[in-house]
Amino acid sequence: MLKHSLFALLLSAVAFASHAEEANSASDDNTAYIVDNLYTFMHSGSSKNYRIIGSVDAGTKLTQLSAQENGFIKVIDDKEREGWVEAKFVSKTAGIHQQYRTLSEEMSSMQQQLRQAQIDLPQLQEQNQMLTDQNSVLSEEIAQLKNTLTSERTQKQQAGAKEKRQLLTYGGAIAFIGLFLGIILTIVLSRRKRYDGWA
C-alpha cells in the first residue's frame, strides 16, 4: 500500500515538474532574471546618473516593464520595487540560482506531501480494515436473511400442501356421509311406503 502511495506521489511529482517546465516555457515575455554570479544596482531612471534605489541579487526574478532604453530596462523586482537596471545583466532565461530555488521549493512541497501521505496511510489502512469487517458482517447477515427467507418459503409451501390435503379429506368425508345418508333415507322411505301399502 505504501509503495503504491509513493509511486502515485512520484507520478504526481513528474507531472508537476513537466507542467512547471511547460509553464516556464510558455510564460509571458515580461518575465526576466538577473544573470548569475553577480548583483546589480537598481536606479530610479534609465542611467547610472539616477539615484540608486538598491541592489538586486543574482538570479532574482523580474517583471519587465519597458523595452531597452539607454542600455537600461525598467523592471519590478521580487521586493515589489520599481526601477531601472542595466540590460546586459538581464536574461530571459532563469539562472542556476532561480532554478535551484524553484527546485528546492518543489522538493520541499513534495517532501511535505510525502510526510502527510505517511501520516495518512495508517488511518487509511484502519479505515480499509473497518470497511472490510463491516462488509463481512453485512455478508453474513445477508446469508442469514436468505436462509430465513428460504425456510419460510418452504414452510409456506408445506402448509399449503397440508391444507389442500385436509380440504380433500374433508370433502371426501362429507361426500361419503352424504351418500351414506342418501342410501339410509332411500331405504327408510321405501320401507315406509311398503308399510303404508299394507295398511
Describe this protein's structure.
This protein is of the alpha+beta class and 199 residues long. It has a domain at 2-114: SH3 Domains (SH3 type barrels, Roll), CATH 2.30.30.40. Helix content is 64%, strand content 15%. It is built from 2 helices and 7 strands. The chain has helices at residues 2-25, 96-198; strands at 31-34, 40-43, 52-56, 61-64, 72-76, 82-86, 90-91. The strands form 2 sheets. Strands 6-5-4-1-7 form a 5-stranded antiparallel sheet, with no helix packed on it. The radius of gyration is 50 Å and the shape is rod-shaped. Residues 19-27 have low confidence and may be disordered.
Can you give me a brief rundown of this structure?
By secondary structure, the chain is of the alpha+beta class.
Described by its quaternary structure, the protein is single chain
Order of helices and strands: HEEEEEEEH
Unreliable stretches covering 5 or more consecutive residues:
19-27
Question: Class by helix and strand content?
Answer: alpha+beta
End-to-end Cα distance, whole Å, is: 114 Å
Shape: rod-shaped
Q: Beta-strand percentage?
A: 5-15%
Q: What's the CATH topology label of the domain at 2-114?
A: SH3 type barrels
Mean pLDDT: 80
Q: Helix count, per DSSP? A: 2
Largest beta-sheet details: 5 strands, antiparallel
The CATH superfamily label of the domain at 2-114 reads SH3 Domains
| Percentage of residues in helical conformation | 55-70%
* Largest beta sheet: strand ordering: 6-5-4-1-7
Using the CA coordinates, give the radius of gyration: 50 Å
CATH architecture of the domain at 2-114: Roll
